[in-house]
Design goal:
Layout (H helix, E strand, L loop, with lengths): L1 H25 L13 H6 L5 H4 L7 E3 L8 H14 L3 E5 L2 E4 L4 E2 L4 E5 L8 E2 L2 E2 L6 E4 L7 E3 L6 E6 L2 E3 L2 E4 L2 E3 L9 H4 L3 E4 L2 E6 L2 E3 L26 E3 L3 E6 L2 E2 L7 E6 L9 E6 L8 E3 L5 H10 L21 E6 L2 E4 L3 E5 L13 E3 L2 E4 L4 E2 L17 E5 L5 E3 L2 E3 L4 E2 L12 E4 L5 E3 L2 E3 L11 E4 L3 E3 L2 E3 L9 E4 L5 E2 L2 E3 L9
Parallel strand pairs: 1-2, 2-5, 3-8, 4-9, 5-10, 8-11, 9-12, 10-15, 11-16, 12-17, 15-18, 16-19, 17-22, 18-23, 19-24, 22-25, 23-26, 24-27, 25-29, 26-30, 27-31, 28-32, 29-33, 30-35, 33-36, 34-37, 35-38, 36-39, 37-40, 38-41
Antiparallel strand pairs: 6-7, 13-14, 20-21
């Protein structure tokens, strides 16, 4: 009886070994050289701080671009990403070095583009830039606003980590319909009539951005003017998500490149003389971080003008008429943004409907709206006047229930051309009634917008301001904290410890 028993044991053993080898082979992922496999947010903020990021992709499946064929960085990326997608997703890793691109990098679902680890380097140190300096460098064409984008409107589980991007933006844009051309950088959203998706679970962490700009003020007609003036709505970081987004520890740095441009801009009389001559191109005249706000403006305008939402009493900016601006799970924290115009950080969102500050979390950021800069033109044709705005704003909110805590800013307005006048606006924190809207269930606390020449904190021109908490915020003594020019009831708000004290609430 021994022989059959031995035969059965050997047969079982060989079957087990074959099955083990099959399982081992079938679950392999990544490429031979690999790369870092840690979850960067878990190391930086602690495990469990953002559970959805920890399962964003299989972080241990690393596809090193140097393991893939191609005569350019873009071809290697495409090959690596194709392999990763085939295996169910993972990390496409770019080791330390410089990678030059001539066009967009199109990221697919379940992919994180990652550079060499930066350890505990931070984007900000108090109100100054931090020591964040990724050694993986992406270089994109100058002032063309290329970068990393998602073409799938439902893209999910995507991220960019530890990249220094020179000239390239992260464009995790929404899916929009109604415009004449999807990727004309302006008409895509300017003429959009509806949102077909924003995807979910998007991460932008530990990156440095510099020289992100589009050099024509009207991207639809670049022959309109020979004057190279930045497009108003260019932004180094734009993230749109129907659920979960984390934009954290990113440095939008001051431009160091000097590009000379020749201007011939029409004046407006003696007070606003024409501008003629050679000047430094204003790279930093742009938005900084945009989460679920700016690119939805075209759709909001169409919904409002069509009357399709009926008479809600609150315009179109409410969750029923405009749900895309009232998503949850959004966080913007620990970023440093340098700019000389437009808005530092813009966002929307919503909370649980009852708790103040339960919506978008905006925490411990700094916005530097530079002092001593000049606004030459908004449209590339004519000099602006004192009634024209370049915003020069720190933080711009839409939606409900934002938690805006421990943020700082130095907010300054700009000199207009060769005149003696400054631009208008210059708010530190603002929620305003564009398309209606109400200020509801917000928690703004321990924010310090002093140190610049402007920077007031306000709810402005809203249809209602209800149940908001403003605690221990600080602006310059000649600035304002509170509500201005409201169109409807102001009730249930609590102000405590602000300097100067609240007014209008």
């Amino acid at each position: 009886y021994g022989a059959p028993s031995t035969y059965m044991s050997l047969h079982f053993l060989s079957s087990f070994l074959f099955l083990s080898l099959f399982i081992s082979y079938s679950t392999q992922c990544g490429s031979s050289s690999g790369g870092p496999t840690n979850v960067p947010t878990a190391d930086f903020y602690g495990k469990g701080s953002y559970p959805w990021v920890e399962t964003l992709v299989n972080w241990s499946c690393v596809y090193n671009v140097n393991d893939f064929p191609g005569s350019s960085a873009a071809q290697k990326f495409l090959a690596a990403q194709t392999a990763a997608v085939k295996d169910g997703g993972g990390v496409v890793y770019f080791p330390s070095g410089t990678y030059v691109f001539s066009n967009y990098l199109d990221i697919q679902s379940n992919i994180v583009i990652r550079g060499a680890p930066t350890g505990n380097q931070v984007a900000k140190s108090g109100t100054n830039p931090g020591n964040l300096d990724p050694t993986t460098h992406f270089i994109f064409p100058d002032r063309e606003h290329f970068g990393i984008r998602n073409l799938d409107p439902q893209a999910k589980n995507i991220g960019v980590v530890n990249i220094y991007s020179d000239g390239g933006a992260v464009m995790f844009w929404p899916g929009l319909q109604g415009g004449p051309s999807q990727w004309n950088i302006k008409s895509y959203w300017w003429y959009a009539t509806t949102v077909v998706g924003q995807g979910s679970n998007k991460l932008v962490f530990g990156n440095k951005f510099q020289h992100v700009s589009y050099k024509y003020p009207n991207p639809e007609n670049i022959n309109l003017t020979p004057n190279e003036i930045p497009w108003s709505f260019s932004s180094p970081i734009a993230v749109y998500s129907d659920q979960n987004a984390l934009v954290a520890n990113n440095l939008v740095a001051k431009a160091t490149r000097v590009t000379k441009v020749t201007y011939n801009i029409e004046g407006r009389g003696r007070s606003y003389p024409p501008i003629e001559g050679t000047f430094d191109y204003p790279y930093d005249n742009h938005y900084g971080i945009d989460v679920n706000q700016i690119l939805l403006g075209g759709v909001a305008g169409k919904v409002q003008s069509s009357g399709s939402c009926g008479n809600t009493g609150y315009g179109v900016l409410n969750p029923r008429c405009f749900p895309w601006g009232y998503r949850r799970g959004l966080t913007i924290r620990d970023n440093y943004v340098y700019q000389n115009g437009r808005v530092g950080i813009a966002w929307s969102g919503d909370g649980d409907g009852k708790t103040r500050g339960s919506g978008t979390q905006v925490y411990n950021n700094h916005v530097e709206v530079a002092a001593g800069t000049t606004l030459y033109s908004l449209n590339g044709l004519i000099v602006p006047t004192g009634s024209d705005t370049n915003e020069n704003r720190g933080y711009n909110q839409q939606g409900y229930a934002s938690n805006l805590t421990a943020n700082t800013g130095h907010i300054n307005r700009q000199k207009i051309g060769l005149s003696i006048y400054l631009t208008v606006d210059g708010e530190g924190i603002l929620q305003q009634g564009v398309g209606g809207g109400i200020g509801l269930l917000n928690l703004w606390q321990n924010n310090n917008l002093s140190g610049g020449s402007s920077g007031y904190i306000a709810f402005y021109n809203l249809l209602e301001v209800t149940d908001n908490d403003l605690f221990y915020n600080t602006v310059n003594p000649d600035q304002h904290i509170g509500a201005l020019n409201q169109k409807g009831p102001v009730s249930g708000n609590v102000c405590r410890g602000n300097s100067p004290p609240c007014s209008g609430l």
